[in-house]
# Entry
Amino acid sequence: MRRIDSQLTEQKQLAKQVLTWISFATRPLTTTELQHALGVEVGHTELDKENIPDLKDIVSACAGLVTVDRESNIIRLVHYTTQEYFQRTQNYWFPCANKEIATVCVTYLSFKTFENKHYDLDEDWDKNSYSSASSLTFSRMQEASSGTNIITSTESEVSKTAVSLRTSREDRRTTSSPGAAGSSSHHSHLSKGAMESDCETESDCGTDAEIERRSERHCFFSYVSAYWAHYVKAAQMEQDKLVLNFLKMESHVSTSIQEVIHRWNTTFGDDNEEYYSS
# Structure
């Protein structure tokens, strides 16, 4: 750390941001996820690609403390004892880690690209795609919560919706199998144009393939969707203006919920009922 502190101000700031993310990430980050995290500018409504740091600069600024696993593309500290040390001495080296990460996560989720202007979400959620489910989850979360409980309610409603939506999708697959009566497309709530093409905005995704393509275009979206509430609670930012403004943005919150529900269903499938119900 003395070597880092002896660097130029810009390099020192970059190194401490990198070490903050790597040391306190909820799961290991890929190099591109970290680069996009570092490229987020608080107060901006989109990601400026010119602000994304080069990987060589990231590694160099950290003065030998980080390394990249070439097979997994994971960037990590060179030794697990380094992470243990940073976590043990967080109040000294990274006293604002959770707040800084939470602020980046919520800023990213508030980007204009995740705003939904095209969906009609009035139909019964369990008969439609992820978009209806996530919208209703948002409504239920708002109705069930007040004050600091809003974050906990978000996580609870997402978990319950993931179970119900999975069951609904299984039922649709059964009824839409060859010869089944009453089969219908789960795109019924979409406009004709949306059915014929890819999602027009990043929140217009209604199918698994569209959601996956969105995640590929915005590689940091899956991480922040899953863990923003964790950092907000850890930093005690439930009443922060940035967070409250985000929670008022139904389309943005619903898009984030849609990603989490999709990721849970595709990752855990039918073999993790306890995970969904916890």
